[in-house]
Fold G protein-coupled receptor kinase.
Amino acid sequence: MGGLDNLIANTAYLQARKSTEGDTREMQRRRKSLSLPKPEQCTEVRQALPAEYESICEQQPIGKRFFKEFLETVPEYLVARDFLDEVSNWELAEDNAKSSIMQSLVTNFLKSGSKGYLAFMSSDLASKCQAATEKDYESILQLAKEETKAFLQEKPFQDFQRTPFYDKFLQWKVFERQPVNEKYFYEFRVLGKGGFGEVCAIQVKNTGKMYACKKLDKKRLKKKGGEKMALLEKQILEKVNCPFIVTLAYAYESKSHLCLVMSLMNGGDLKYHIYNVGERGLEMNRIIFYSAQITCGILHLHSIRILYRDMKPENVLLDDNGNCRLSDLGLAVQVKEGKTITQRAGTNGYMAPEILKEENYSYPVDWFAMGCSIYEMVAGRTPFKDFKEKVSKDEVKKRTLEDEVKFEHANFTAETKDICRLFLAKKSEDRLGSRVTNGAARVTNLKHAFFKTINFHRLEAGLIDPPFVPDPSVVYAKDVADIADFSEIRGIEFDDKDKQFFKKFATGAVPIPWQEEIIETGLFEELNDPNRIATGECANGGEAKSGVCLLYLKLFKKQYKNHSSSPPPIENTFVGRWATCIPHFKDKTSVFFTKFGNFRYGGNSWSIFVLKC
């Protein structure tokens, strides 16, 4: 029944992906039961939350929204907000529109007597603005932007903390800290496996948001001594806030697993697309687009002093829209300022010469792996090993250290050859990107003709359409039957030290991704509605008596073909192991059936139903 198991698991998974709000009645009932904590419950959070402007008003989506709403209530503050919004529009504009927008900005905000004049500007900047000519506009706009941000961090931010807007933000912060466990989610098919457990698709019950859950077996972690590595990966993921790196949304524990809930990337990895879709290799427009996004992701990691160490196409995943993100930060390491790394880590064929020679190394190793990946996207092979070539690790090492890269594939353009040569330089100091330190990790430091068609400001803002969109009806993952089960670990007992570690790991929701989820799925507007009346408490996701309880399969016999909406007798159903991850129903005396879908398998017609209680 392996093929049937896979078909059923995929059908349930794809159905959940199609409707991110889940079953309408179920979601509505759940949401009606939710309510924000009362203001008097926010005292502890008010005292504990650091009053940091950048974190609250710029980084956290809900804080940013409330701060903007507050600025609208004070004319002087509103002008500052409008100016920053217009500056953002200018920075993200197409090149042919930038000049006119810049002219308008200077006229409307920086010239004395204008309606939106920034009266809080320093006298020095005000004088520069009055004397400025068109060639000075860009520089004075940057200075005005900096002074406006500095202005908002002072009295406006202090005033904000004494308003109902801030009180409402604190209510959301308390709600954000609700306990998270396995009851918070629905669980779907297994997508893959790692060294300590499997990765499966899950869905948040209260919002319908889909994620990938990396489940780390507690006993396996302890037996293999992987606790430190798991915690380090979790801590690094918490620090990351970049659209080109997978996001950690939740960290929780179940009885048997530690769980990392991350971005669900439905489009498969680049290795799959290079070798399994059409001819080997990718089209040049895709290569440039992915390379630009990967570059932004690596630069973000370097800007917060994180060395990736495992850059390769297999670790670059595509989302539903065709944008890519770096994944699997299990080998990533935090680099202390001015220090280097000595530990050997990475994947054979992508490791830089300094790693192979066991020398001290730093950020340039990621750029070497980037060069290998661009080469592979073009040629459908790595620089130092041909496709399906049987060669030892020592031989790959020798070639990496000694051989010059050859560009024999017809798709290599002059710009592509040049950027590969620069990334693949044997000496780290000669490598493109080697002069980009963590303090200056900007795309402008990596300017190259290869990226001449990319507007990086617009790319980072998500304003450039990807050249390829994955098929939403395809599951880019191995069949369920092909993902081997882990053997049971015996003889492992947990002590108090283990329990303390589990508690340290399971910190619940990560603020920025959680707030993005709440806004994206409409729950923010719903719970902020002043006319809303909550019907109960269901914040923990699993306390409701009703919901999706069990999927089961019914052989679609002739007598049911015209009466598919009628409940078929349970005795005639088949429940496979694919159903074990679906929450079991609590009240077996009150059930009804919902048609889920039809398909053909083994010459028979089948129906999937959802059993509700």
Remarks:
- The chain has a mean pLDDT of 83.
- The chain has 24 helices and 14 strands.
- Residues 71 and 77 are 5 Å apart (CA to CA).
- The chain has four domains: 1-34+165-265+476-540, 52-160, 270-460, 545-613.
